[in-house]
Amino acid sequence: MAPDNRTAICPGTFDPVTYGHLDVIARASKMFDAVIVGVVDVPWRKGNSLFSTEERVSFLENATRELGNATVEPFSNLLVEFARERGALAIVKGLRAISDFEYELEMNQLNRMQAPDVESVYLMASAKYSFLSSSGVKELATFGGDLGELVPDEVARALQERLAR
Ligand code: PNS
């Protein structure tokens, strides 16, 4: 890894992207020269996603364009392999509540066993996004909740079209 090209991977399923994800991506983009947003592209994982990989990638591309140093790519191999392939210095993830910590600690240990050379760093969620999740947003959309403060307009419209009862 050349010291003048410090790349981070911000991975996730992003089904769909929320302002909480975008907050972490934007903060990572200030700390690294380049950010690759890695979108999990494994149809059978965690059940079917609401949005296709192409839709999830497109939402993220539109929402991160103005950052200038972020690109979006699907991946379907191990996260640490994807990070190595892209020459990333670190994997950057957001941490919200204690429940995130337990899951991320387990993932961190597993990832570290697979690839001790790939470091993960964690950014604490901004307070206003501490309890924001893709699944919570889908629940709200199903029952006609207001998504304006939670996801980009394009995502809110897509959620309402697909989920509103
Ligand atoms: O909570 P998310 O958004 O579904 O997390 C996705 C991801 C890939 C960041 C998380 O599951 C993780 O850290 N996985 C490590 C194990 C791995 O590499 N899985 C393969 C994913 S294609």
Could you characterize what this model shows?
- 42% of the residues lie in helices and 19% in strands.
- The termini are far apart.
- Strand 4, helix 4 and strand 5 (119-124) form a beta-alpha-beta unit.
- It has 165 residues and is of the alpha/beta class.
- It has helices spanning 19-31, 53-64, 79-85, 98-114, 134-142, 153-163; strands spanning 7-12, 34-40, 70-75, 90-95, 119-124.
- It is globular and about 45 Å long.
- Strands 3-2-1-4-5 form a five-stranded parallel sheet, with helices on both faces.
- 4'-phosphopantetheine binds at residues 11-13, 40, 42, 75-76, 78-79, 107, 111.
Number of helices: 6
**Structural class by helix and strand composition:** alpha/beta
Biggest sheet, strands in spatial order?
3-2-1-4-5
Q: What is the overall pLDDT average?
A: 94
